[in-house]
Design a protein that fits this description.
The protein is an alpha+beta fold. The chain contains ten helices and five strands, in the order αααβββββααααααα.
């Protein structure tokens, strides 16, 4: 972290970029949120920059059955959400560590510019992000999403989640009920107390990050669009062959042409996940 900001002389541009959000009413960056404002209260009159940890679990050797997670590997990356927008590049997502999934307060003095001005900068954890399985594993929550209490944000049971249409404050996870849950062996979804809670600026229950790819794009959106398309076809607005033809011949452009989805077949619509 220290060498990255020194080598690229990014400290002042980053601080200037963060300051530009102070009078912006539109929520477009993590540093504008209430969570970040709570975190920096621990460091009054200090220069504080957030970083994100990204957790990615993947399986090697393609094992089956009881050996399904035997060779699961966890990659850990980190990035800085407050970098100026022109520095939002893949090369600025850094590889932090690799570990077996089952094995699962920083401060530096930074040379701020070419005039050898030294300032103290605190890097504090903003969020731990990743897919649902990776996060639940890394944060010591239930790894099974078919269990009774699977949500990172609340203590609603599986039966409750099928009926709830609005938030219930009494079900939200808090530091207090988390400590209780950690003592009773995952009855409410907490496998054990996470070591990350020892970081002053972090607690599992305040890690407000949702897996947008699996929850929305491959989850709710996929499920809903299967029913929507099936309904439109049944109402004879178009047929499946027409949709497939339009999709196949759409002008995706040079960037997305190699990343188009597979053809839609009838069985895809009848059995949405």
């Amino acid at each position: 972290m220290k060498s990255f900001f020194e080598k690229n002389n990014l400290l002042q541009p980053t601080l200037h970029y963060m300051k530009s959000f102070e009078n912006n009413d539109k929520l477009t960056n993590f540093v504008q949120g209430e969570l970040w404002k709570e975190k920096i209260q621990l460091y009054p009159n200090k220069i504080v920059l957030p970083y994100f940890l990204y957790i990615d679990d993947f399986e090697i050797n393609n094992p089956l059955g009881s050996h399904l997670t035997k060779h699961s590997i966890c990659n850990i990356y980190y990035s800085f959400p407050a970098l100026p927008i022109e520095e939002s590049k893949l090369e600025n997502v850094f590889y932090g560590a690799v570990t077996k999934s089952r094995d699962l307060k920083n401060q530096w003095n930074i040379n701020a510019n070419d005039k050898n001005v030294i300032v103290s900068v605190h890097f504090i954890s903003g969020l731990v992000i990743g897919d649902n399985l990776g996060l639940n594993s890394f944060l010591n929550l239930n790894k099974s999403f078919s269990c009774n209490f699977f949500c990172r944000f609340c203590r609603a049971s599986e039966e409750d989640t099928l009926k709830l249409s609005s938030e219930k404050n009494e079900l939200i996870r808090t530091a207090a009920n988390y400590e209780i849950d950690a003592l009773i062996n995952a009855n409410f979804g907490v496998a054990k107390n996470s070591q990350l809670n020892s970081i002053p600026s972090f607690h599992v229950v305040n890690n407000y990050y949702a897996d947008v790819m699996h929850d929305l794009f491959k989850g709710i959106c996929h499920y809903n669009f299967c029913h929507i398309i099936d309904y439109f076809i049944s109402m004879k607005y178009f047929d499946l062959d027409t949709l497939k033809d339009r999709k196949q011949n759409f002008e995706y452009g040079p960037t997305e042409i190699d990343n188009i989805s597979s053809k839609i077949e009838p069985h895809h619509l009848k059995k949405p996940k």
